[in-house]
Amino acid sequence: MSSQSFCKKKRMLSSAIEDRIIHGVFLVCGLVTVIVLFGIFGLLFFTSFPAFEEIHVTEFLTGFDWNPTSYVKEVYGIVPMLVSTFMVTLGSLLIAIPIGIGTAAYLSDVASPRVREILKPVVEMLAAVPSVVIGFLGIVLVGPAIAKFFNISNGLNAVNGSILLAVMALPTIVSISEDALSSVPASYEQASLALGATRWQTVIRVKLPAALSGVIAACMLGMGRAIGETMTVLMATGCAPAMPKSFLGPVRTLTSSIAIELGEVAYNTTHYYALFALGLVLFVITFIINMISDIILHRYEKVSR
Amino acid sequence: MSPVTAEPHPKNNRKFNKKMRLVMKEQDKGKKKGSLLKIKVEHFNFFYDTTRALKDIEMQIYANTVVGIIGPSGCGKSTFLRCFNRMNDIIRNVRYQGEIYIDDRNIFDKSVDVVDLRRNVGMVFQKSNPFPKSIFENVAYGLKINGVRDKDFITQKVEKSLKDAVIWDEVKDRLHKSAFALSGGQQQRLCIARALAIEPEVLLLDEPASALDPIATSKIEELIHELKKKYTIIIVTHNMQQAARVSDYTAFIMLGELIEYEETNKIFTNPSKKITEDYVTGRFG
Ligand SMILES: Nc1ncnc2c1ncn2[C@@H]1O[C@H](COP(=O)(O)OP(=O)(O)O)[C@@H](O)[C@H]1O
Ligand SMILES: [Mg+2]
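ok -> structure tokens follow
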């Protein structure tokens, strides 16, 4: 056997090993993600389990009062927090989605390249503002403005939280939607323009539908940010642990309840476990949202392709 | 939008006379065909940045005729075609010089709305490009963006356009299925139907059959014969036989210059320029 063919064989062997190693590394990476996910779920589940030795599950899920430190009777009802979370998230999405998609459409199709080059990084930089700073602005800027506009005594409420969360969700929505719009094949755009469509008609009727999966993903990520955000809503929404009466009243979300109470709760008490149960509820909500968005995406892809 | 310049040209006498003679010659031809002047290209230049892609083009096109544009690749055929509906506007740093009149109206005039122009001058691209929508929605699109709301009217118009594009029988049972499920040839005819739906007067076709098999190609060519009755058609092709088959007039372009523009018959049997003869007989290109 010549030395040349020997070399060849050796290299083939090592490349097979290399393949297997790379395969293994990626497998481990993938597994780690899955393990972490299940680990978090398991931790939340088993830590919150003891809470339900004291609290009835239906009472927990349907109770209208949350008062774990009462001297008379401790009650653990999460409906006010669910409603608060829902209100603030919905409010922020109502503000952020139209503005976000509009901005993305403007950036990708209407703005000149120079405007886009300046504006897109600026919008993305918004994501770098710490949530504490945004909460602070909510207290000193947005709050008083709301109070003045609606003629109420205090501007720390659901509207304030919605506005701030919208600001925080915008960079995600704008940036990812813009990427999605820009990756729509130019041939669709040309076809539309050649039929006498204006640029706005083209982006709204052709490019947005073609980029819908990316745009939905952008909105979902923005929504994830809004639901999970803690510091801003803690600072800007008033945080009264009662059933919210309106968008102009104080609200207290799941996240701010956990953040407020976990620092003061006694270790291994029912209250302590109940806070983990709140975390579990939050986790389940975000999980369901992700599942729904996945289903929407798949259904859409079947129709359009 | 890119700057549009339409500079008036000082007409010195010799040039003017030459032009008059040309016009008279063309008008004679027009009489023969019994048709009227639809498009007039005058002293037309086109620039990508500083590169002059089209050089001093003069051309007259009659209504209800098919004009074939041939020439080696990169000579400016597509560029020229995209001038008629100003699709070049979407490319940055381009410049027009000279005039193109459609129905005696200079399309580069400030008063011309490019959106209106494109509704009047339809275009079909080299690579079929249906929208990721249903077959019906593809054809209805042009109507909807033009503000047509009447559902019955849209339905009728979609059917008529698909029939005119000779694809109705193949798609009538799956109008609401995705256009992407169609074959390449069907997609291209769908794109033609989409262009026809808004009733343009001029139809621009940029190598519409270059990606198709012979059967699909011959269908498109038959279609062009039919469409000629209603539309004025300009078709770019690098296939000489195709130009000979479908067009009434043929323009031969090379390096951005209009070398010869004549009745198709003459171009292919008895061209006046040696270089045209070399090209159409396949001696180069
Ligand atoms: N967007 C563009 N920017 C700059 N130059 C271009 C552009 N499109 C085409 N060209 C140039 O213009 C010339 C003509 O191109 P084109 O009209 O596409 O030729 P054809 O369709 O005859 O093959 C070519 O030299 C090409 O490189
Ligand atoms: Mg071309």
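The radius of gyration of chain B is 19 Å.
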